[in-house]
Amino acid sequence: MIEIIVFSLIGIGIFFSVLRMIIGPEVTDRIVSLDTMNVMITGIIVLLSHIFKNEIYLDIAIVYGVLSFLETVVLSRYLEAKK
Amino acid sequence: MKVIGDVLIIIGGIFYLLGGLGIFRMPDVFNRIQAGTKATTLGAFSLILGVGFLNPSWFLKSLILVVFMTITNPVGSSVLARASYLHGARIAKLQKDDLKGLYEKEEMSQDD
C-alpha cells in the first residue's frame, strides 16, 4: 500500500518535469528538467529493488546514477563552449 | 525498523513531488535549478536510506549510493548554473548583475 502511494507521488513529479521539458522556452530549462528526472528515475529503480526483493537493482541504480551525472556534465560543457 | 523505513520512503516521495512542482512553477532557470536539484537530493537521500532500513542486509550498498548521490548532485547543479549563465539565460526581475564582465576578463587572460 505504501509503495503504491510513493509511486504515485514520484509519477506526478515526473509528469510535471516532462511538462516543463515540453514547454521549456530555452534549452537550459530542458537540461535542468532532464537532470531532475534522472534522479527521480534512480529513486524508482531503488524502489523496484525493494518490491521485487532483488539486490541486483541497486547495482543498476548505481550505474544509472554515474551515467546521468556524466550526461549532465557533458551537455553543460557543450552548451558552455557553443555560446 | 520497518516503521522508520516506511516513514523515510514517504518523506522521499513527498520531496520528489515538491521537486517536480518547483521545476514546473518557478519563473526562470536559476530558480528552477535551486528548487529541483535541492529538493530532489533530499528526496533521493531519504528514499534510498529508507529502502536500506527496510532490508538491513543491503544497508551498505544503499549507503554507498547515498554518498555517491550526495557528492554528484551539487556538482551537476553548479556546472549547470555556470553553463546557463554563460549561455545568456534570462533572469527574472534582475536589478544588478554582479557577474557582468567577469567571464570576458577570464577568457582574455586565457588568450594571452
TrEMBL record, chain A:
Record GO cellular component, one term: plasma membrane
Bilayer-crossing regions: 6-23, 35-52, 58-79
Superkingdom in the source lineage: Bacteria
GO molecular function terms listed in the Swiss-Prot or TrEMBL record: sodium:proton antiporter activity
InterPro entries assigned to the protein according to its UniProt record, in alphabetical order: MrpF/PhaF-like
Alphabetical keyword list: Cell membrane, Membrane, Transmembrane, Transmembrane helix, Transport
Membrane-protein topology: Multi-pass membrane protein
Subcellular location: Cell membrane
UniProt keyword annotation of Transmembrane present: yes
Family assignment from sequence similarity: Belongs to the CPA3 antiporters (TC 2.A.63) subunit F family.
Protein's UniProt name: Cation:proton antiporter
UniProtKB/TrEMBL annotation, chain B:
Keywords (A to Z) from UniProt: Membrane, Transmembrane, Transmembrane helix
Transmembrane residue ranges: 6-24, 36-54, 60-81
Record-level Gene Ontology MF annotations: sodium:proton antiporter activity
Pfam families for this protein: PhaG_MnhG_YufB
Protein's name in the database: Cation:proton antiporter
The organism of origin for this protein: Petrotoga mexicana DSM 14811
